[in-house]
Amino acid sequence: MKKYMHILPKIGLSLLLALSFLGCNEDEFLTRVPDGRFTPSNFYQTPRHIEEANNALYRQMRGLNIGRLYQYGEYRSDNTTFEYDLNDRGRTANEEIDYFLMNTDNGFIGGFYNDLFNSIARTNYIIAQIGDVPFEDADLKLAREAEARFFRGYLYHLAAQHYGNVPLVLEPLQDGGESLIRLPQSNPDEIYRQVVFSDLQFAVDNLPLRWPNAETGRVTRGAALMAMARAHFARREFADALPLLNQIVASGEYQLQDDYADVFRVDNNSEIIFAGQFDAGANQGAGFMLSWLPESGTDITDGPARNQGGFNIPTCSLLEAYGEGDLRMDFSIGFYDTPFNNPELDSLAYSKKFLEVPFPTGGVGIDIDFPIMRYADVLLMQAEAQLETEGGLPNSVFETLNALRARAGLPFYFPGNPVPELDIRTEEDLQAALRQERRVELAFENSRTYDLIRYGIFEETMLAHGEIQREKQSFLADFPDAYTNIRTLLAIPPNEVELYGYTQNPGWE
Q1: Contacts for 475 with CB less than 8 Å, ≥ 6 apart
Q2: Contact at 8 Å (CB) between 499 and 483?
Q3: Which of 96, 164, 190, 390 suits a disulfide with 102, CB 3.0-4.6 Å?
Q4: CA 323/CA 142 separation, integer angstroms
Q5: Residue 124 and residue 170: Cα distance in Å, rounded?
Q6: pTM (2 decimals)?
């Protein structure tokens, strides 16, 4: 059941319009509210209103994960690229992300920033108003507030992770954008201390382990623990993350699916902690997958030729990362034998992890979900935290690696293995094996860039990746600066710098 995705929240555009009226009190016409419209002052009156406002946050989080976050979590890594089209230069902004050629005027930079802070603004209204809303069930009221705090904490984690110093806004702004002039940028230490960890801890304390069946799909205590662990991982605070991951494992709520395919084909299965959900019954569908398919490919979809985008295409580096016979590769990656407008290629790899062939045009009619958090990631993070805090060759790390490899149909790692590449003798060997396993297990799930940054090898990896890409893609001769300016943080949008005097991030001046 996917109840929250069926509801079309009334908050949507009407609330955004209402926000634009804040601070206009000189003219009665400007302050009058059109009949039938909701505003921040009259919307948050009932438990139903709070539920609908929270529902909108799920839609926002789903949109971020199938849009902005693959651009930054996969494109800006050695995992994926795009199908270059000499005749279609309208995709320059995407190319700039992949090539590390973005300037501050790239619209995807400001778009992501605005998406994050528009969503944060929504959470602030819910949190500010829910105290005055009468609920018959006190526990449900705490859970609804915990949902909003989960999203605010996680959104601020994403903001700090991508932009560094950002304004800390924890109350609804009552006079519109002018309030931002009085809000300086806060550094990530302040962001994590004042909102990320405090909000996520509130969510851990007040979200249920599971919701009633009618509300399956909402964030749970496990999701809040995972969000906190991810935030600590981004800061390399492994000793703080490990107890959180241990709690998820000890809860008994989650387990690996026997078949890797079932993780992505069976709704709300035991491996999914939190997913962006699609529901064919509500005329939804995973239409984002069309842009990940080759531009041609009439046997992949039931639509006409060239109705795809050719984005998020696997790199040769990713293909080579899979071991021989890895079932995850067979399930996750397809090959199309007639790439559009690219005579250099005999075939083109594409992600098929979130689709079933033939894929319906527009994606409507399927309800494959996008996993935002899943248990395999918990186990891999737990193993990494154990290795980082304990060192040596912990048996538990081998157990995690080999459980995932067993599902993938691969032989096991162990000390003294007669197969040299599976023989783990040192901590460095085990670390390399763990990182390799993480890459192929979580491919196309928006993790790779952040893993490389956490490992401390982002710049060197992407410089080396650029050299490989130049060898394989002759058109990169037209982009001599591609993969040369590797910046970890995104730019602060230039309008924010101009309007509010914010400091620009290094390398973007």
Answers
A1: 84, 86
A2: no
A3: 96
A4: 47
A5: 6
A6: 0.91
What DSSP element (H or E) covers 426? none
* Alpha carbon distance 418, 62 (integer Å): 45
Q: Are 11 and 52 in contact (CB under 8 A)?
A: yes
Locate 344 and state its tokens: 């250099």
Distances 94 to 19, 113, 135 between C-alpha atoms, Å: 31, 16, 46
Is pLDDT above 90 for 473? no
pLDDT band for position 211 (cuts 50, 70, 90): very high
Are 2 and 62 contacting, i.e. CB atoms less than 8 angstroms apart?
no
CB atoms within 10 A of CB 97: 19
Given a cut of 90, whether residue 125 has pLDDT beyond it is yes
Residues with Cβ within 8 Å of residue 15, at least 6 apart in sequence: 38, 39, 40, 43, 122, 125
Whole-number average pLDDT of the chain: 87
- Identify the residue with better confidence: 111 or 348: 111
- What confidence tens digit (pLDDT) does each residue in 427-456 have? 999 999 999 999 999 999 999 999 999 999
Residue in the block written with tokens 């399930």: 331
Contact 222, 209 (CB under 8 A): yes
Angle at 109 between CA 106 and CA 115, to 5 degrees: 135
Contact 336, 297 (CB under 8 A): yes
Token pair 């078949």: residue: 259
